[in-house]
Amino acid sequence: AKxxxxxxxxxxFRVGDGRLRRGFHAGGSFTRVVDLPDCLVLPEAANRxxxxxxxxxxxxxLPAYHPRTRQGVWRHAVLRHxxxxxxxxxxxxxxxxxxxxAAEVAHRLREAHPEISGVCWGxxxxxxxxxxxxxxxxxxxxxxxxxxxxxxxxxxxxxxxxQASLEQAERIYAAIAEGSRGAATAWDL
Length: 189
Known about the structure:
Layout (H helix, E strand, L loop, with lengths): L6 E10 L2 E7 L7 E3 L8 H16 L14 E8 L6 E7 L4 H14 L3 E8 L11 E7 L3 E5 L2 E5 L9 H15 L9
Parallel strand pairs: 5-6
Antiparallel strand pairs: 1-2, 1-4, 2-3, 4-5, 6-7, 8-9
């Protein structure tokens, strides 16, 4: 069985060879992006959304953000998939107040992919190339996903930390429960 992660941060938008790239940073570089047709550890539903996202962002004609020049619009995308429900939440991050284009992409994504429960939009004009938008707005649907880890039912906001591999999270929780023998309180901080 292939390993599966339920959340991925894509350094989605860079220009290379005259087209928008979607992927991850190249080793040792914060400006180069390795263009990936899909991600082998993402659930198939999230992969389909990621492919559509690149095409829809490119169709806007807006440029990708470049961290050295600090020019461009499209910066990042975060995809979060719920193993419990099969739904996907998408977070689009732009470098400028590009709400209109982001809303159009959000609407078209949800039309094409009924498994998308919500699309959020954030702005980040920070020099750092991290997904930390100054504000986050829900453009379509719901921002939170429902997830289950062992006996626990969770509501997970799109940018909050949750172990990317839920199989591993279940093992961690089980080890804590075994170690405490049910007599202790554990905090996941």
